[in-house]
Amino acid sequence: MARTNNVTELIIAGLFQDPEVQRACFVVFLPVYLATVVGNGLIVLTVRVSKSLRAPMYFFLSHLSLVEISYSSTVVPKFITDLLSEIKTISLEGCVAQIFFFHFFGVAEIFLLTVMAYDRYVAICKPLHYTAVMSRPVCHRLLAASWLGGFFHSTVQIIITLQLPFCGPNVIDHYFCDLHPLFKLACTDTSVEGVVVLPNSGLFSIFSFLLLVSSYIVILVSLRNRSAEGRRKALSTCASHLTVVALFFGPAIFLYMRPASTFTEDKLVAMFYTAVTPMLNPVIYTLRNAEMKVALKSLWGRKVNSGLQ
């Protein structure tokens, strides 16, 4: 891969070293991952089959759920199986691949959250133009741009990583492969690469977060002239989006905008946004969305009736 690579296999230190704690984590995180896949998969299925969920908001929500499944699946299955292994290893190629897909789906999610904020802005602030502005072709172009943005971001990260030589040591002090832990293993100075990664990850996250928050502030200000019912419905939708934005961006900014470290609390913060947040998103969106709850009940009733026949 890179120049003078003597390292072909990496050892992952993991989240905890105590075998009893690792087994306890296995019992906790296996159901968390299954809930992530089932919950987000249910949203994708419901939006696909329900005729009442044809609005652009639900189109983007279904793809956000698909991204959540993919994003979590780049890290959590490997982490869960490693909890039962005494020695946790990954090939250098596998490590680079994990970094690529982790950042690919993560940045695609950032773009999707931004698109969803734009969708809510147009729906609430420019309702008369909503159908024309958020037409189906426009929605597909915005979705494609989100995926391409994630691909471009990850490609830059991997190009930087592939230039580094790895000649030992080979122990990653983390529970999955990411840029900063891998940079520490390179047998060369990586300060320049760190400076490049900062705007590509940390500053990009902060800019996107500020853009999202600003758009919701504009939306909230525009609600002053709405009826009480209109404000309630709009606030319910925006509250769900803002909760997801805070849960996703908070830990990411905390990790990527500070000096690289391997403290246990940093690993726990990373665990929150790789495993816990993807599981919470379906709960947040369904509990605060009446149309989604009705569609889920209808889908469940249809399955029950078909099973009884």
TrEMBL record:
One of its GO terms (cellular component) is plasma membrane. The keyword Membrane applies. It holds the Pfam family 7tm_4. Its main location: membrane. GO terms for molecular function: G protein-coupled receptor activity; olfactory receptor activity. Keywords: Cell membrane, G-protein coupled receptor, Membrane, Olfaction, Receptor, Sensory transduction, Transducer, Transmembrane, Transmembrane helix. Putative odorant or sperm cell receptor. It comes from Muntiacus reevesi. This is Olfactory receptor.
